[in-house]
Design brief:
alpha+beta, D-amino Acid Aminotransferase, Chain A, domain 1, 3 domains, 5-stranded antiparallel β-sheet, 4-stranded antiparallel β-sheet, 11 helices, 14 strands, D-alanine--D-alanine ligase, ATP_grasp_subdomain_1, ligase, ATP-grasp, Dala_Dala_lig_C
């Protein structure tokens, strides 16, 4: 949803605005309560946590949302009692990147828990996040919905003993079945022979403790498409960007873990309207097929003929100047603050 439209909606909701003060119009804050829910991280700052999908700059989000909404606070959940207290307060919105908590030897998925108490939240449910996080499941969902994705199979070390037993042709691309941020992807992920195939599958099992997803290598351009769900009518806005990666020592352009970690890639707006429309349709169809809600990101790659294929999805995309934020900037000329406001507005309108 375009920010100007959001502003109009919110002004109509709160009625009038205060009189001019020193030639500035000071809007009345909207009478909504928002809790920014976080969990403690006992590792290094911003280190990976399996139960956190979006690492929030919570103090910055607090500063931004407090400009527009009356009651905004940061809530750290350390126990099941903290969670129960949260739902008793029944805020108008929980703004959080937490996937789940692990209390009393069981997982409690935040958004599904909030759903039981009819408390609005941002991002998707457990079912959708499960669909997205397991790349094998995600690709099967694409196939079931006639959404183009590369041929693939799942394997562990020792399952395929000869080149002729491998069900799809070389070259292949190999990555872990689970995990984000291109963990387990490196210059050895593109394989052209059986020896390199067995080596990479073993490497993923050893280092990532994961089976391997092996798929037909797609040699074309790489894209990411941000998705925003409209807060009023539920329509989806697609925001494609092209990701440009320099060739590595082997002459391949691989968006691997180190490239992402070191911000070595660049992104540009998709200016070709035909390509833009193809990417947008595939991304929207993929988002809906996975059961996505509110916001997300769909990664797409072209084959050598320029045909787009679903690669993977992220239904809790990073908000700290990552691909989702950059897709908002390039496509909607949206500032970081506007993005946070838009996410909150969609969440508030979702129930």
């Amino acid at each position: 949803m375009i920010i100007k439209d959001i502003a109009k909606q919110e002004i109509s909701e709160i009625g009038n605005i205060l009189p001019l003060k020193k030639n500035n119009i000071i809007p009345i804050k909207i009478n909504k309560s928002i809790e920014i829910v976080v969990v403690p991280n006992f590792g290094p700052k911003n280190s990976h946590q399996d139960n956190v999908g979006i690492i929030l700059e919570e103090k910055n989000v607090l500063r931004i949302l407090s400009k527009r909404y009356k009651n905004v606070l940061i809530t750290e959940i350390n126990s099941e009692e903290d969670l129960e207290a949260l739902v008793k307060r029944k805020p108008d919105l929980v703004f959080s990147g937490v996937k789940y908590f692990f209390f009393n030897n069981r997982k409690i998925w935040l958004n599904d828990y909030l759903e039981m108490f009819e408390i609005p939240y941002i991002a998707s449910s457990k079912a959708a996040l499960d669909n997205e996080s397991d790349k094998n499941r995600a690709k099967k969902i694409m196939q079931k919905n006639n959404i183009r994705t590369a041929d693939f199979f799942i394997t562990n070390p020792g399952e395929y003993l000869t080149k002729s037993s491998i069900p799809i042709k070389f070259p292949l691309f190999i990555k872990p079945v689970t995990g984000g941020d291109s963990r387990g992807v490196d210059k050895n992920s593109i394989v052209f022979n059986f020896k390199d195939f067995t080596s990479k599958v073993l490497d993923i099992k050893t280092k990532q403790n994961s089976p391997s997803l092996v798929e037909t290598y797609l040699a074309g351009k790489e894209y990411s498409v941000g998705i925003f769900e409209d807060s009023i009518d539920g329509t989806l806005r697609a925001m494609p960007i092209e990701i440009i990666v320099k060739e590595n020592v082997d002459g391949h352009c691989i968006l691997d873990f180190n490239v992402k970690k070191n911000d070595e890639e660049s992104v540009i707006l998709v200016s070709d309207i035909v390509v833009f429309d193809k990417l947008s349709k595939l991304a929207k169809d993929s988002f809906k097929a996975l059961g996505g809600k509110s916001l997300g990101r769909i990664d797409i790659k072209m084959d050598h003929l320029g045909v787009p294929h679903f690669i993977e999805a992220n239904l809790m995309p990073g908000l700290r100047k990552g691909y989702f934020y950059r897709s908002c900037v390039l496509n909607l000329d949206m500032s970081y603050e506007d993005m946070i406001f838009s996410i909150a507005n969609t969440g508030l309108s979702s129930h």
